[in-house]
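Figure S7 source data.
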Amino acid sequence: MPLLTVEDLSVKYGVAQVLWNVTFNIEKGEILSLIGPNGAGKSTLLKSIVGIVPHTTGRIMFDSSNIGKESVKKRVDYGICYVPEGRRIFADMTVLENIQLGALPKRARANMKDNLKTVFELFPILKERATQLAGTLSGGERQMLAIARALMSEPKLMMIDEPSLGLAPNIVLQVFQLIQDINRKGMTVLLVEQNVRQTLKMSDRTLILENGRIVKSGRSAELMSDEYVMRVYLGV
Ligand SMILES: Nc1ncnc2c1ncn2[C@@H]1O[C@H](COP(=O)(O)OP(=O)(O)OP(=O)(O)O)[C@@H](O)[C@H]1O
Ligand SMILES: [Mg+2]
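Tokens for the predicted adenosine-5'-triphosphate complex:
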């Protein structure tokens, strides 16, 4: 039984259709990556899974529940978490306050203390900077804060939208390493990335979305030597 099943999902903004009959699933414990050009609908797909954007057709099953009509809050309670593009954090609050805000779902509130300990072990830099205003963090630290806050909600599925955006190459590697560490501890991850080479290396399977349609999918290791992927996405 997959953790998430998306069937025949279509999404429109007004009259403009941006997702067309998208079908895929995510197995427990895997890293599934989603790649594709700007405007393909990658963020829209994540938003429709967490419920920020409604879908016009299709079905979303999570942990054997049909969640397609549930509120965002309910879906977060089920264990879906969305780390948006652009590392949105609360600039005027401290690092610690930002992290604590992640523990809103009921089940997560009870375990907040333990989870905080785990998060600080994973991100020692955030522990050092716990009392600093989040607005003064560097780009890489903000990305870590966004992921740390998401972990506090005890998600079963973390959907992370372009964590590498605007980060220096060595910081990108650090963030990818952290995502792999989190995955090794059992987290299922849906990762949207433009950094195709590294993403193929770190994920189990990959979906390619173009113009709102999945045009290719498969094991990431195999896609690395796929003629189309090499030509269009890897520039070889
Ligand atoms: N709220 C909205 N209202 C209308 N159109 C939207 C809205 N959000 C996104 N779109 C449009 O939907 C299409 C898909 O956008 P989306 O943000 O999902 O793409 P993306 O694949 O995440 O792109 P990028 O790689 O640039 O982040 C784009 O053409 C975008 O302009
Ligand atoms: Mg996007």
